[in-house]
Amino acid sequence: MSVLAVAEHRRGEVRDVSYELVTAGRRLADGLGGELNLLVVGGDVDGFAEDLNRDGVDTVYTVDDGEEFNHGIHAAAIERLHADLEPTALVAPNSVDGLDYAPAVAQRLDVPLVTDVIDFEVDGGGIEVTREQYGGKVETTYQVDADQYAVTVRPAEWPQAEDRGDAAVEPIDVDVGGESGTTVNGFEEVGGGDVDITEADVLVSIGRGIEEAENLPLVEELADTLGATLSSSRPIVDNEWLPKNRQVGQSGKVVTPDVYIAIGISGAVQHVAGMKGADTIVAINTDPNAPIYDIADYGIVDDLFDVVPALIEEFGGDPPEV
Amino acid sequence: MKVLVTVKEVAEVDDEFQISGLDVDDGSLEYDLNEWDDYAVEEAVQLSEADDDVEVVTVTIGPERAEETIRMALAKGADRAVRVWDDNLADAGFLDVDTKAALLAAVAEAEAPDIVFSGVQAGDDANGATGVALAERLGFEWAAVVNDFELDRDADVASVRRELEGGVEELTDVELPAVFTIQTGINEPRYASLRGIRQAQRKELEVRTIDDVGLDESVLESPVDRTDMYEPASEGDATYWEGSPEETAGELAAFLRDEGVVSS
Ligand SMILES: Cc1cc2nc3c(=O)[nH]c(=O)nc-3n(C[C@H](O)[C@H](O)[C@H](O)COP(=O)(O)OP(=O)(O)OC[C@H]3O[C@@H](n4cnc5c(N)ncnc54)[C@H](O)[C@@H]3O)c2cc1C
């Protein structure tokens, strides 16, 4: 009744989500009354195993193959170790790479998969997991009745395991079986440029509620009036209304301003990942059930096209007609 | 060359909504083409515009209602569509990733595409797993969360960018046949033209049952069952400013002045 959790690293660093996986994995292992084993594949596996040796981990298995993530090698390594250890639960991060191998691995192992899990309860022969649906407006629970299953866990839901452990480290050899049809050639950083939203004390951040590019002058004027910097959620950047360096969130920037004013932003998990560390969060959104209100300190449930002009006028500004 | 695009009709929840049983009440739901699939359709249509011999086929698991969404994809330039549905699927309610991947794989095997585009996730369920599960079932290569796609037809290789966390992109070559899960922002999805909408009415939209695609009811059996759906207890402790826009803006202005954020 053990747990096998797959750690993640990139460009020489163990990613934070791996330490969260230790916490979640240990809890799951306790529920099952078994061991928590980690697997780390590729890169400086010895160094990574050292880093991952946190309290609660029984064994760190290492596969020294390749430098960076490659789903072919990952899948082969997991398949091999899964056959040896026969874990009840396979746990992977619900990260971009996690979603690049976990669904394939679950198919290959013929185990059910539930992704983006935010909570779980071990019961009887299976597990009950909790996840969000409809953009975070509702939660659902699922009962998984299987002797073996796989879950991906949402990043930043569990605290990182910090205390040093006394795990055994065990290198294993895996035959990846021929060449992979996928070749990783490198990385590139995007979202540079003259504006650095991570430096701003106050961010006026705009989302899909602004509706059209023609309406942007309204929030630009607000940012000017407040001496704040303009940032946005993803759809604004996808539409090319603002450049990539303004995007807050999982695939954009992580910001920690004193004040973050979220205007017409629903608060999707990938957005919140980039701004939940702000000191004070103010939300302006017509939908009282928008998830952004779960993390907001102050809220105005009203139309941004009424509130923003009034706010500009409060500071003696002249709101543009939109 | 054939491109298969998985297209899902997703449900969006109204601001005010009711839950009945294990799902949001149908009266509180609006249906639309999944945002990620809109980009996937566009990527496929652009390939067919670049080369005459490219056929774009969409595949959807969904009830008759979904045909409006499917016609929209046809109006944007897909050539024909397959919709999988029957009474057993209608009765099944919740479908897990494995079931969806199995049904899509059955259609894909018959179509034998070179490329499959699917969305990174569906806006409603947000599993983010169906495309990659489908690839494994088909024995295809794959890449998840793709925000740039360049095809080299002579080499049968696609050079893509996978959008990772924190503004980092991975540059990857993928041998065809392969499944790509498409991320928003990869292109600029077109609006359907009036002409396109008219043409879409005449395009082939074939409905197939589980039986027609060569599977049986056992594909619906799943060890994963939805047991509850509820509105989460708000974790928040937000202070709400209420009143007219002038009043609420006044409260926010006072707060910003108190914080020393603005001096004027
Ligand atoms: C792999 C991956 C990575 C992602 N990375 C990011 C990321 O880095 N950053 C990011 O932001 N998203 C990211 N996303 C997308 C994310 O899932 C959401 O789709 C996105 O954050 C939604 O943006 P939004 O809140 O602006 O739009 P919506 O969710 O559409 O919300 C718009 C909000 O505006 C409100 N509104 C509408 N009209 C008005 C009005 N007149 N006045 C006031 N309020 C109004 C609505 O009530 C609604 O709550 C990612 C998704 C994936 C799958």
What does this protein look like?
The complex is a heterodimer of chains A (322) and B (264). Chain A has helices at residues 16-32, 45-52, 71-85, 98-109, 216-226, 234-238, 269-272, 292-295, 304-314; strands at residues 3-6, 9-10, 13-14, 36-41, 59-63, 89-93, 113-117, 119-123, 126-133, 138-144, 149-153, 168-171, 182-189, 202-206, 229-232, 259-263, 280-284, 298-300. Chain A has a 7-stranded parallel sheet, sandwiched between helices. In chain A, strands 15-14-16-17-18 form a 5-stranded parallel sheet. Chain A has a 3-stranded antiparallel sheet with strand order 8-9-10. Chain A has 2 domains: 3-171, Rossmann fold (3-Layer(aba) Sandwich); 197-314, TPP-binding domain (Rossmann fold), CATH 3.40.50.1220. The model of chain A has no long low-confidence stretch (mean pLDDT 96). Chain A is α/β, with parallel strands linked by helices. Chain A contains 9 helices and 18 strands. Helices cover 30% and strands 31% of the residues of chain B. In chain B, α2 packs across α6 (194-202) and α4 packs across α5. The model of chain B has no long low-confidence stretch (mean pLDDT 96). The chains are: A alpha/beta (322), B alpha/beta (264). At the A-B interface, α4, β7, β9, β10 and β13 of A face β2, α4, α5, β9 and β10 of B. β13 of chain A pairs antiparallel with β11 of chain B. The structure holds flavin-adenine dinucleotide (FAD). Flavin-adenine dinucleotide sits between chains A (96, 135, 207-209, 233-235, 247-252, 264-266, 268, 270-271, 274, 284-287, 290, 303-305) and B (120-121, 145). Flavin-adenine dinucleotide (FAD) sits between chains A (96, 135, 207-209, 233-235, 247-252, 264-266, 268, 270-271, 274, 284-287, 290, 303-305) and B (120-121, 145).
